[in-house]
Structures are given as C-alpha cells and as structure tokens.
Specification:
CATH superfamily of the domain at 314-491: Fe-S hydro-lyase, tartrate dehydratase beta-type, catalytic domain
Structural class: alpha/beta
Number of helices: 15
Shape: globular
C-alpha cells in the first residue's frame, strides 16, 4: 500500500500554483503564436503580440501572467490502495498549499477570494478556500490537476437545459457573441454535455485541463460524436470574426473541448466555460516517493516577438488632457498614456456611489475632474517593483456606475478591458467622454509602464483600493469615442463579413 505524506500534497499544490502563475502551458503558447502568424486583423495581431511578449517576460521574471491570479480549482483522484500519513483532511492540505503559494515572498499572488459572497464580501487574504472536486478511484496514486481560473472568464460561463432535439452547435454559436470579450479571447471553450446541471458544469471545467490538440484532430479527422462537435464548433465560432480581445479577427478560439456523460431521456444539459489568455493549469501524480514538483519549460519554445505602438501612435499627457483633445480621438487609434490617473473597480465604485448618494464629499486625493480612471486590481509589488502585474479588469461590470461617474465626478475617460454595454456607451456619448482598452492577459507588460503608484483611498479594500498610478507610454486603444462609436461592435462585424465572403467566393 502506498503512503502519501501530508507535506507531499501541500508542497506539490503550492509548487504547481506558483509554477502556473508565471508559466503558460507550452501548447497554449504555440497555439497563440500560430494564430498570431496567420492573423490579418492588425488590432488582433497587436493584442496577441502583447500577450506573447507578456508571457515570455513572466516566464523569465517569475511574476504573474495576469493580475487576476484566479480562484483555485482542483480535480483530485485518490487511489483506493493508498494510505495517508496526515493529521489534516485532504481539503485542508490542499488549502494549505494554496495559502503557501499565494503568500510566497518572492512572487506574492493576488488574494481575490471573498467570504460571505452575498453579504459583506470580505477578502480571505490568502485566496483560500479552493474549489475541490474529489473522486475515489482504483489504484495506488493520487492524481491531481490544479488550475487558477480568472474571474473574467469564469463570469462568462453559460448553462442551458436544452430539449433533446435541440442543436448543441446552434446554442454555442448563438451564445458565444453574448459573452462579449471579457473572457479575453483567444482562449479555449470547455463544453460539458449530459448528466445533470452540476455534472455538465464540472465536465466543462475539467475539459479545460486537456492539452490543445485541435490541429491534430483536424489532420486525422473525428472518430466520435464529441470530436465531430469539437470540429464544427471550432470552425463556426471562429467564423464569427470576434477575434483577439473582441477586436475582430480570424481567431477567437484556439481549441474546443467536449466531455459528455449519460443523461436523463428528457434532458440535454449543456455547459460552456471559457478559458482566457491567462490559461493556467498543471498536473502531478503522488506515488509515495515525495512531492511531485513541476519541471520548468524550455524558454526556447517561446517565440521571440517584438512589438511597438508604431509611428502613428499618439502620446497623451493625462495631466493636461482636455475634453477638446479627446474629441479628436478615433476608434481603433493607438494611444500612449503618460502622466497620472486614478484606479478603481467594483468595490471602489460601490463605495463612491454610496458617498455621493449621501451628499458627502469624496476622500482627499480622490478628484476625478478631467481625469481618467483605470479599472484594475493590481498584484502587490515585490523587490524593487513599483507595482505588481496590473492588467485591466472587465469594464462591463462598471457600466451601471458610468452615468454617475461621468455626470457627478468630472471624469472624462476610462481604461479597462473588453466592450462596454449600451448603457455605458450612451453615457459616454452624452457626456463627451471616451473609453480606452488595454490588453487583457498582458498584466506584467502593462505594469512596466507604471513608474509610480500609491494608495490614495479605501485602503481597507486591499487590491480594490483606489490607487494613483503614474504611467509612461502605457499602450491603449480607443474603444469608444466621444460619439459612441465602439470598436467591439465594428471590428467583429467587419471580420465576420470578410470570413463569410471568403467562404462563398
């Protein structure tokens, strides 16, 4: 009988989580690089270039790929022929591994997990607890898949209880456009079919642990219904023209995974969960011979890509920018931001709304007049860093606050990732403001443009506190101009038309 020691599981979980925070899976990098090489949309190509450059920087610097270091999800299969040398439960061992990984002094990871989710929403401070799926199986090993799932992609998870005669492909193709770009494509779609509602969701999540192999499947052809679905969905979703970061282009998904399970005759449960450009997962097996530590990849497998904003990029001084100046910016235009801006995301916006609702003044240092706000919750800095990885969070979540912010604070511009909804676009147009998009999945690269940072308000909110950042040549794209023209609408529409014309030519 194999003996598995308590520290072996703890150390293996901690090592895996540190590893995946800065090393993309090599198959993912190769797939993004292949998509970058064939991409014809310049906006999408630039976005993927930043993702690839960011990935290499993180691999070299051992710092997080994304400021959202995820909610830990674990699939653990415990062999019936093992015994534990442990005083802790399996869940407690896993959570201790999470705790150690997220507080590692050389690479502190962002604590994003909140307890009392329907009430006070207090940060647990160490990213515990993990979501654990445990199964008892035959054998004498402990098999573990560990993932760190970003909130932006998790927020786009979908489920439907279809009728038995309904088309799964039609449901997926109709649903993907409703997900927007907050899941940071290009990525993967995990699809679970069958069982019950909760089983379908688990199947979809677990499928995302599989390696990217769609090109091999295309080359050899399908041998099952699941593989036929993978190929059809892969083609039809990419035909939508959504593209990298939702800017329009040839590649929206790098792979589609499908897992199924027997289901009731009256049901066809279908779940879809996307993985983002910060795809993070690792696998290890404990066999009684000590901890199973990850093997660093060969960085020669990372492409050597360079990117610059180009000669047409416009440098902007955030300290002197005016409404007249922003009115000249065009959708899709590249800007290089310089100067100071404030940050804020969900909790800060809620607190600002409460303060203004009471007729009170905002805290000292929080003056949005003629300024920009950056939707971000950065990672804590280590060593000589000004700030840790600080990529954008999904702007759509702030849509309900946009009218208030633009109408009552003097704010003239916002920076985030993904599209804005109709309510926010209308507010932007009505107030002559702008929305700028930074690339999701390039957090370490973005942080290099931040030359100073300090907390100015709501320090108790942790990563959601309001900071003041000073930036130098921070690259962004004009996503919604003062007239309400939005690239996340025009880009995909244009590229869907291009793709369809080529198919019918």
């Amino acid at each position: 009988m194999t003996t598995i020691h308590q520290d072996d599981l703890i150390d293996s979980v901690a090592d895996a989580l540190q590893f995946i925070s800065y090393f993309h899976p090599v198959d993912f990098i190769q797939a993004v690089n292949a998509a970058w090489e064939k991409e014809e949309s310049q906006a999408a190509k630039d976005a993927m270039a930043q993702i690839l450059i960011n990935s290499r920087m993180c691999a070299e610097g051992h710092r997080p790929i994304c400021q959202d270091t995820g909610i830990v999800t674990v699939f653990i299969k415990v062999g019936m022929d093992i015994r534990w040398d442990a005083t802790m439960s399996v869940a407690d061992m896993i959570n201790e591994g999470v705790r150690r990984a997220y507080s590692h002094p050389d690479n502190v990871l962002r604590a994003s997990i909140l307890t009392d989710p329907a009430g006070a929403r207090r940060n647990t401070g160490d990213n515990t607890p993990a979501v654990i799926n445990m199964e008892i199986v035959s054998g004498n090993t402990v098999d573990v898949h560990v993932a760190a799932k970003g909130g932006g992609s998790e927020a786009k998870s979908k489920f439907a209880m279809l009728n038995p005669s309904d088309s799964i492909v039609d449901w997926v193709v109709n649903t993907v456009p409703t997900m927007g770009a907050g899941w940071c494509p290009p990525g993967m779609l995990g699809i679970g079919i069958g069982g019950t509602a909760e089983k379908a969701m688990t199947l979809a999540k677990e499928s995302l642990m599989d390696p990217i192999d769609i090109q091999e499947l295309i080359a050899r052809g399908p041998s099952s219904t699941a593989e036929e679905l993978r190929l059809e969905i892969y083609e039809k979703v990419n035909d939508l023209g959504i593209g990298a970061q939702g800017l329009g282009g040839l590649t929206t998904v790098l792979d589609v995974k499908v897992r199924d399970y027997p289901t009731h005759a009256a049901n066809k449960p279908v779940a879809m969960i996307p993985n983002c450009a910060a795809t993070r997962h690792a696998h290890f097996v404990l066999d009684g011979r000590g901890p199973a530590l990850q093997t660093p990849p060969n960085l020669d497998d990372w492409p050597q890509i360079t990117w610059d904003a180009g000669p047409t990029a416009l440098r902007v001084n955030l300290d002197t920018v005016t409404r007249e100046e922003i009115a000249t910016w065009k959708p899709g235009q590249t800007l290089l931001l310089n100067g100071k801006m404030l940050t804020g995301r969900d909790a800060a916006h809620k607190r600002i709304a409460d303060i203004l609702g009471k007729g009170e003044s905002l805290p000292e240092g929080v003056d949005f007049t003629n300024r920009f706000i950056y939707y971000v919750g950065p990672v804590d800095p280590v060593r000589d860093e000004v700030v840790g990885p600080a990529g954008p969070t999904t702007a759509t979540r702030m849509d309900k606050f946009t009218e208030l912010m633009l109408g009552q604070t003097g704010l003239i511009g916002m920076v985030g990732k993904a599209e804005r909804g109709p309510m926010a676009v209308e507010a932007i147009r009505n107030h002559g403001a702008v929305y700028l998009m930074a690339v999701g999945g390039a957090a370490y690269l973005v942080s290099r443009a931040i030359i100073a940072a300090r907390v100015v308000a709501f320090e108790d909110l942790g990563m959601e506190a309001i900071h003041e950042f000073e930036v130098k040549d921070m690259p962004v794209t004009v996503a919604v101009d003062v007239n309400g023209n939005a690239v996340h609408r025009s880009g995909p529409a244009e590229w869907q038309k291009v793709i369809q014309q080529r198919k019918t030519a």
